[in-house]
Structure formats: structure tokens, C-alpha cells
Structure to design on (213 residues):
């Protein structure tokens, strides 16, 4: 009899605790929480309009900055929180950017996204676990006094294959990824591509690759 009462007490205690946590989550200003988490990574988010729902956040004309410049912007951006994790969906000039964070992995996808600073268009499909896997393609990436037609990376954990198109030539090569678990998009890349009598060194980070002759 006492065991039954103890189980009932334990059940109601856990149920009450979870209910309070859920109510706190539903009523807590989600934008403030997001802003605080971004500041921890030295990122800054602005928006012309912010709307909060029960499990989501909706922004209009949103821009993300680091300490130096604007990284990307969205005409419309939504973030939703569910049992499996956090989902992000953004649109800009007809392009689309998606993100999904869960306890076991992160997934990023971009389709003809033209609102990333420093490139004309971004297409990507990446999965982040203990390394970075997938493909990313950037068009119109500038380096020194020139502009690449396209830079494509095929990532396989801690290594990658690279392909670049420049002035009608195709350059190919490979390199390594210096994986940064706390901020995967700022993982370092080191490699080179060559072809058509040219050789370019790849460096920088995944979010901001750099090329040198």
C-alpha cells in the first residue's frame, strides 16, 4: 500500500515539474534566449519585426552579424522547437535556407540562397556529427582581384575534395578540415586546387573560405 502511494506521489511530482518547465518555456521570451545564445558565439541578430508563438519565433527582415560585418540576411525567418530539436527555415530573394538541430546531429541545407555575404549564390546539403559530411557550392566567391565562377567542396568528416571553376578552367584538389565541434561552420579548411597551369591555396573557415595564389 505504501509502495503504491509512493509511486503515485512520484508520478505527480514529476508531472508537476514537467508542467512547470513547459509553462516556463511557453511563456519565456524566446528571442531574448536566442539573442543570448548568439552573443556567446559573438554573433548579433537584428530584425524589423519579431513575433513569438507557443513553440516558435518568426522574424521579418532579419540579419545576422559577426564582429566584422553582416553574414547573411532573410526576408522571412522562422524557428520552431519540438521534441526532436530546433528547426530553422529562412527565405531571401527566392532562395531557401534550412537548419535542423537535434541531440545527435545538425543538418543544414541551402537552395540557390543569394543572401550570404561574400558570395552570389549558395547551395549546400551538410550533416554535422563528429565531423562534417555533404556538399557545399558557392558561386561568385571573390579572392584577391578575381572572382571564382564556382567553388565546390565535398566533405567527408575531416577531409574534403574540392573543385573550382575560374576563367573557363577547372581546378581540382583536396584538403583537411580542422573540425570545431562548438561552432562547426567556423571549422578551418586547409588544402589546394590546381589545373590549367594554376594553383590556388584554400584556407579560412567553412563559412568564409579564402583562396590565395
Amino acid at each position: 500500500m505504501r509502495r503504491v502511494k509512493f509511486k503515485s506521489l512520484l508520478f505527480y511530482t514529476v508531472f508537476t515539474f514537467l508542467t512547470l518547465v513547459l509553462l516556463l518555456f511557453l511563456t519565456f521570451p524566446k528571442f531574448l534566449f536566442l539573442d543570448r545564445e548568439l552573443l556567446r558565439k559573438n554573433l548579433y541578430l537584428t530584425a524589423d519585426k519579431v513575433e513569438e508563438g507557443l513553440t516558435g519565433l518568426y522574424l521579418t527582415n532579419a540579419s545576422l552579424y559577426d564582429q566584422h560585418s553582416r553574414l547573411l540576411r532573410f526576408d522571412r525567418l522562422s524557428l520552431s522547437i519540438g521534441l526532436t530539436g530546433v528547426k530553422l527555415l529562412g527565405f531571401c530573394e527566392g532562395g531557401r535556407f534550412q537548419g535542423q538541430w537535434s541531440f545527435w546531429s545538425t543538418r543544414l541545407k541551402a537552395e540557390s540562397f543569394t543572401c550570404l555575404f561574400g558570395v552570389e549564390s549558395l547551395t549546400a546539403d551538410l550533416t554535422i556529427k563528429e565531423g562534417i559530411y555533404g556538399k557545399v557550392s558557392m558561386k561568385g566567391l571573390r579572392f584577391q582581384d578575381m572572382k571564382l565562377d564556382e567553388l565546390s567542396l565535398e566533405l567527408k568528416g575531416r577531409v574534403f575534395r574540392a573543385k573550382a571553376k575560374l576563367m573557363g578552367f577547372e581546378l581540382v584538389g583536396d584538403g583537411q578540415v580542422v573540425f570545431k565541434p562548438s561552432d562547426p561552420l567556423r571549422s578551418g579548411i586547409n588544402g589546394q586546387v590546381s589545373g590549367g597551369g594554376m594553383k590556388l591555396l584554400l584556407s579560412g573557415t567553412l563559412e568564409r573560405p579564402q583562396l590565395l595564389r
Residues 17-24 have pLDDT under 50 and may be disordered. The first helix runs from residue 2 to 27.
